[in-house]
Write a structure and sequence with these properties.
2 copies of one chain form a homodimer.
Chain A: H1 6-13, H2 17-24, H3 33-46, H4 52-59, E1 64-69, H5 75-90, E2 94-99, H6 104-116, E3 121-124, H7 131-139, E4 144-147, E5 158-161, H8 163-176, E6 182-186, H9 192-207, E7 217-219, H10 225-232, E8 241-244, H11 247-260, E9 269-273, E10 287-290, H12 293-308, E11 317-320, E12 323-325
Parallel strand pairs in A: 1-2, 1-3, 3-4, 4-5, 5-11, 6-7, 6-8, 8-9, 9-10
Antiparallel strand pairs in A: 10-12
Helix pairs in contact in A: 1-2, 1-3, 5-12, 8-9, 10-11
The structure holds a DNA duplex (30 and 30 nucleotides).
Amino acid sequence: MGKITMADVAEKAGVSKSTVSQFLNKRYHYMREDTRTRIEEAIKELNYQPNYLARSLKQKRTSTVGIIVGNIMHRFSTEVSRAVEDYFIQHDVHTIVCNADNNPEKEKKYIEMLRAKQVDGLIIFPTAPNLDIYQQLIRENYPVVFMDRKLSGLKAPLVASENNEATWSAIQHFIDQGHERIAIVTEPLTISTRLERRDGYKQALEENGIEIKPDFLVSAEIKQIQQELEKLFAIESPPTAILAGNDLLLIEVLKFAKEKNLKIGEAFALIVFDNIPFAHLVDPPVTTIKQSSYLMGERAAELLLKQINNQKIEALEMRFPCELIIRDSSKRLK
Amino acid sequence: MGKITMADVAEKAGVSKSTVSQFLNKRYHYMREDTRTRIEEAIKELNYQPNYLARSLKQKRTSTVGIIVGNIMHRFSTEVSRAVEDYFIQHDVHTIVCNADNNPEKEKKYIEMLRAKQVDGLIIFPTAPNLDIYQQLIRENYPVVFMDRKLSGLKAPLVASENNEATWSAIQHFIDQGHERIAIVTEPLTISTRLERRDGYKQALEENGIEIKPDFLVSAEIKQIQQELEKLFAIESPPTAILAGNDLLLIEVLKFAKEKNLKIGEAFALIVFDNIPFAHLVDPPVTTIKQSSYLMGERAAELLLKQINNQKIEALEMRFPCELIIRDSSKRLK
DNA sequence: CCCATTTACTAAATCGATTTAGTGAACCGG
DNA sequence: CCGGTTCACTAAATCGATTTAGTAAATGGG
């Protein structure tokens, strides 16, 4: 026997497909009590499961959204997507998570795939090369929310951290602890997040009258980081403090320190941008800049749902503050 | 203007929908060269994107599979799902990843949702209470592969690690290092994986003529682990070696050690089951039991695709060996 | 040059739901 | 008891593709 459809249920219950459909949509006032129970029983007996494809095709609504994260390996992405999922499940909307691996080609493929599947909206961690695709989405009035990264000229809601301010406080904290030779390590400056963090770094130094040394601005792909750190510590007076731009960079810095036998908190102080689940467990515990990932995910989801329901959206850019969690790694050096 | 459909393309190109459909399916021999280019141009000009819902409804095939992981917070789950996705993308199949949070209710919801969406098959990290649902899937001949955990009586392919053997070697390694008081910490013994690991532990001790002390078999929910460890170290002669059953338990053990000022490698030796990205970066580096997560994911995907294509499957149970990566945390105590 | 085959298409049915317009019977107020 | 309303449904169109059967024109062999 093939798959059970609504027609089978209708026949078994002795009613028309229309009535079964009304039943499934809980519009019970359309039928008598006994009809309702007959349909109920037929469904149970046949173990009928509705076909969402057919339903979605007719309704032009899939009750599904997509989220395309930059790189699922970052804790931040995981936490955001978890929040988005939690929010939508409460509104009977399913979430499909896709990992673009920070690869514009892959991202483009996923956007096309999700739209072909007719998802009702998208949350995107955007990459610059796909700007025209985003413009197209917006032109079509397709519900979309951007996350974490700002692309100029995009007239769509953005949810991001106060990267500049957060980095500023971290650097100010270093300075308060007596540091003057402070380095910042980021991935290549291709997205706004990294630029904003670098700007916060520069501002803090300038305000304190500390010269900005180009050598202390390290930006490279993860794979290149080891040799860049090598260079950084080969100069005449190497940094006494390092800000690592995200969790994956932390791993690299820790690896470098281990290999070179540089003790964190003694050879140099350390702060990381991002939520690191084991930050308080390593020795010494690492000072972190915690983003409000969960709140940001919720907010993005809410903004997306509003668009899907054709509601107006008040502000286009929502910035969330970060929290500096001070631990031993950023204390004054021994 | 509403959404562009195949009818719009057909009209613009001056052909019928059927021909456009043939074009989309690359059956070019059905049309003349110039018709083909006319359709090509119409599609480009209108920026037409096919609707997968309609296509899937007709074809009774979505070219999409689902994977329901036990808990996405485990590194193992992430690596497996990544492998599954990589495999399927090469075969033009999309993968939807769902996180059941080790919650049978949630898992059930996801299975229903994915089936309603008509996915072509499922890879599941199963939980015991949903046994009847799995039996139902198998009875319906629905393509399914189980991962990581074995439920007896399920006549469906299983891909899992050699948990027993791997744990055996880890414990044997402890014994070789002179340990006799060895504890094993796992989450509750509700799934086969944990039972198999416990059995491997027992076997190794028995073979070496070491008495099995119930106190050394710690099983509890993550939230309860701290107090259980407290008890474990309160007994007259506490363990000198601990095997942590997975990555989340490692975090708990490290946290406990930190709080109690017990130094790993001095107060007790440590081995963890699972791939831990920062295992070699903590002090001392932690010995791990590495599962072949990527290979397992690939294999599961392959087995699922075979079922989807109605091919025979040779063996029902595939076990993958683990690798013991020895680092300082499991050396003889100082 | 005629009939058969091939070429290059098209019309219409179909997938499994939703939804709108419509229908017959019961009810009901005046 | 008669016209209007309500009740409890049903028939049929529809969503946007795929696919099968069919057709008109061109080709080609004898």
